[in-house]
Amino acid sequence: MALAEAGLRGYGVELQPLNESHVPNLIEAASDGNLWELFFTSVPTPDTMGETVRRFVAERSAGTVQPFAVCLSDAGQAVGVTSLCHIDAANRRAEIGYTWYAASQQGTGINAACKLLLLTRAFDDMGCIAVEFRTHWLNHRSRRAIERLGAKQDGILRSHMIMPDGTVRDTVVYSIIASEWPSVRMALNRRLTMPR
């Protein structure tokens, strides 16, 4: 089975290759906190969720993105989205991004589990030499979460992109490189197996 078609499972989450059957659950998940109203991130509205999922599925065919529905292993219901994106096979690099979770799932450990699964795919299965993370300068929660993973800040892309509401975003870029992966993996495994 091709990597882009294979799901990932562990630590109470299952990353299922994103498809249109996930749309109803994703609308419900995004509505948990009205996530599309957050100015520092881009979460599809209920009206645009189907279109967004179809776009990701089409991009998966091009080999530059592996989008996943984040599902709870015990319930099977999608509670968010994450992906390996901007895959650059020639330079053995990828980014983990387009990530969001229902408000009720934030702070539960689901993010660390998803990131461990995606980092394992990127470094161990795809042979990446670096994995990047990007977030809005003002998304302090996301920045702290990325830093807790063990990623290091590479820099800030100032006036990097125009957000849907017309504001201009400064983007903070982080990465984990292959030589750091063994210690990052060990720390994430420890974090996920310790009692909460």
From TrEMBL:
Can you give the residue ranges of the N-acetyltransferase domain? 14-152
Origin organism is Micromonospora saelicesensis
Any one GO MF annotation of this record: acyltransferase activity, transferring groups other than amino-acyl groups
From what superkingdom does this record's organism come?
Answer: Bacteria
Per the UniProt record, one Pfam family is: Acetyltransf_3
State the protein's name.
Glutamine--fructose-6-phosphate transaminase (Is omerizing)
What InterPro entries has UniProt attached to this entry? Acyl_CoA_acyltransferase (IPR016181), GNAT_dom (IPR000182)
